[in-house]
Specification:
Elements lengths: L5 H38 L5 H42 L2 E2 L6 H14 L5 E5 L6 E4 L7 E5 H6 L2 H16 L2 H32 L4 H10 L11 H44 L2 H11 L10 H4 L20 H12 L44 H11 L3 E2 L2 E2 L2
Parallel strand pairs: 2-4
Antiparallel strand pairs: 1-2, 3-4, 5-6
Helix pairs in contact: 1-2, 1-6, 1-8, 2-6, 2-8, 3-5, 5-8, 5-9, 6-8, 8-11, 9-11
Amino acid sequence: MAAYGLYTHIASNKFRSMLLLAGLFLLIYVLVYAGALIAEVVIKSDASVDYYLMAASRDLIAAFPYATGAAALWIVIAYFFHQNMIDAVTGGETVTRQQQPRLYNLLENLCISRGIPMPKLKLMESPALNAFATGLNRRQYAVTVTTGLLDALDDQEIEAVLGHELTHIRNGDVQLMVIAVIIAGVVGFFGELFFRMFTNLSWNSTGSSWSSSSSSSSSSSDSNGKGSGGGAIVVVIIAVALIMLAWLLSQVVKLALSRSRELLADAGSVELTKNPDAMISALRKIEGHGELPGATSAVMELCVDNPREGFADLFATHPSVDSRVDALVKFAGGHDPGPLAIPVARTETPDHQPEQPPSPGQLPPPLPRGPWSDATAPADASRGASQGVPRGPWGRHG
């Protein structure tokens, strides 16, 4: 599907995302098939490879409705309770205009200017600089912002971040990413379950029929794997390979969904705010400061920036800040200021320290001048002090 502009890129990305999501759902059945292979080996350890493959295929057909129902139930539970789960992990709390007028007004103005329904606004107590959007329908949409982001960014930069998250909502990215995380969670959970089951079986069943029979099968000249357990070993290897492949592909699908959408969300923020420099400076300040302590990888994948990376950046869910900034400079006409330092938090000033009494023989400090003091107050003050004339807040008396 060819794309020539921002909106056609969005439509093309949605089409590809649906295909990837369908492929992600199919990985569940790959895991079911791998589990059926292991189950058949446990039930009958001295059959051929062909027998195991055919028996596992029959098991997959029989388990198809149950696997589909379990996956659908998982999605339904997440549909209604995923926000509660995320809030429990992050500690995000809904705030009102009275509690956060600055942040609330910025979000409301963006929504009104583009006719976007106002999502819930949540604040998360964290020094990290990050934000994320969640929700699967209009009643659930929410934008969560950390207190660190609120303190470190100015109004234009916060508006750019909010525009980024609103674009995720407007483009349907939030629904797809939440569902992708849910399905990938199913794949990861059952993949780990099957892998642990196989590991326990191989370590605890050293005297079992299929393990002990492998030695006798190694001396057999049956090239088709038929005999006393040779087929079982081959099938177990196939099952483990399918489990690992399903997990790996689930991560790749999530990466394909996330990386492309972050670039489009940056562009959407510029389209909303008409300020590419604000988005660039926000990314530069967030860079290296977005880690949410205690947050799961699923939550970090929804954030503006995810500093967690795999080996050689292979499993990084977000493009690097440099590549995102380069895209904004190239296509939106922004200017890159380079890495930016976060403003230092304000500390207590010495104005609140108790005043020290003057030492003997030292004149007390001059009284503060009021707004109606005359221009000759300093001279009058010195003359009045020498003559002992009292001065009030509106100048000299007498």
